[in-house]
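User: Show me a protein chain along with its predicted structure.
Assistant: Here is one chain, sequence first, then structure tokens.
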Amino acid sequence: MDNYKLVETFTEFKEFKNIDREAMMRIIEDVFRGMLNKKFETETDDFIDIIVNVDKGDFEIYHNRTVVEDDEMTDPLRQIKLSDAIKIEPDFEVGEEVNEELRIENFGRRDILALRQNLQTKVSEYEKENIFQKYKEKVGEIITAEVVHVWKREIVVTDDENIELILPKAEQIPNDIYKKGDTLRAIVKSVENVNGSPVVTLSRTSEIFLQRLLEAEVPEIYDGLITIKKIVREPGQRAKIAVESYDDRIDPVGACVGMKGTRIHGIVRELRNENIDVINWTTNPVLLISRALSPAKITNIVLSSDNTMANVYMENDQISLAIGKGGYNIKLAGKLTGYEIDVYRNSEANSAEEDVDLQEFSDEIDQWVIDSLIKMGCDTAKNVLSYTPEEVANRADLEIETVKDVFRILKAEFEQDAE
């Protein structure tokens, strides 16, 4: 390999690698310095100068030695005999410095090949570290990227610097459909080093993605006038957002939705028509649960003594609204409030005073069965009877025959009272 081809190699890196000029100069100098230290078997910083011009794709190496009398030379690496110096330039005198250029082609083919290989390795390592650090700082931020490959398990995209990023299937909204050349928006979820290479994972299903979209659309959130207290999502289906404003003059829900829904509509489209409910945050759990179950109208809410469960009562025609399509409304309301929510008809609330605690049946029903029923959220007879035997068997993980026996015992109790 000659000097020309080595210079050509540097030019390739300069034009096609994602490396700034100063970093490239530092890498090239470090590689050369390492080779020279090995060749001279000592540190060369004090007698070798390396000048790199990345813009032109060339370099120069100078060996600096002090002229001494022929019989006084003790260090041939840092000194040069006067008789040798005047062969280079006739007017050299003792004490002057000789700067002699070292030509790369004089180093030997093996040295040059090792130099090229080391340079490629260093550039690759720098690029990987650069990508890792760049995206480590971007975790949680939205980026826009272009789709380059659509695979079964993931989509590969590239950013504006042609860095490849991954959007796994699990991080895609179910209704996401992309083809090569499309652009997409997502947040940077994580950056990891896998086998020495950075892997940047994106997400469109994260709650943080929705939060960043809101911050971009609602200036009051970005400015800190409105606080997002909590976000829960079933990606592509439904989302619930609790917001709060410390300024009574600002309606946080109205600000997030915008005039005629202008602010929220763009976000809904980005999330593939995901229904978004925005509610006012409150520390009152009863009021928060009522708001979280919107659009259903609530008649009464009874919280358990340990504040983990909520029995919610409403009219018959409101139950389907509370549960929502696919059960997403009640599921997300539970996640948002932190309560396990059970829905009951108002008629069941009116007859609650006639109910019987399940522990009253411990002489007829095994305690482990009662414990399973309580664990599913039913601590009274009427709680259990509000479900079908099949529902109870599924939710409490009991055999259907066992559940049918329980139903028979519980119903007999109320039949006796009726008599």
